[in-house]
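Exercise 3.2. Students should predict the tertiary structure of the chain below and write it as structure tokens, then compare their answer with the key that follows.

Predict this chain's 3D structure.
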Amino acid sequence: AEITSSVRDIRANAHLRRQSFEVRALDCLFTSMGHICSAAFKDAESKVRSLLTSLSHRISSQTVDRLAVFKTGLERIKHDIEGLKAALETLDKADNVDGVFLSLHSDNGEIKHSQHSAAKKLELELENLIESQLYHLDSLLSKMRVFEEEIGTTEAMLTLLLDSGLNRLIRLR
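Answer key:
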């Protein structure tokens, strides 16, 4: 569904039609992957927030166990986002991305002499695309870090509450 949405976005945006096929395809791919990561994070975030709310009212071992499962899921999402970011950074640092632009190549695999200025323009478009995607991923990772801190704070509060309850039980004995 996300990929179909991105393809529709490409068709709808006139400025994208002026870009090369390769840049449009990469934009569609990167955008779709970013949307998938964002959707996974938003879904996990809403579930964890409801768990945190229920934990603030009543502590149960089931809820604590579910929180641990969701934390593991969040770590997987974070790992996927970091992997995508690393791939984009590798592409961004590549000295020669001419191979990406297949439409500019002649039959022998070399960029056509008449296409060198077009290749430079495409490199700039690709660089802008990568920078935009990196910004989006950095923003998503930042949100995840803040959310992880919130979870950690809640876990610390739970530990204090449980320790306090245990201390009261020990005093009663």
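Discussion points: The first helix runs from residue 2 to 12. The radius of gyration is 24 Å.
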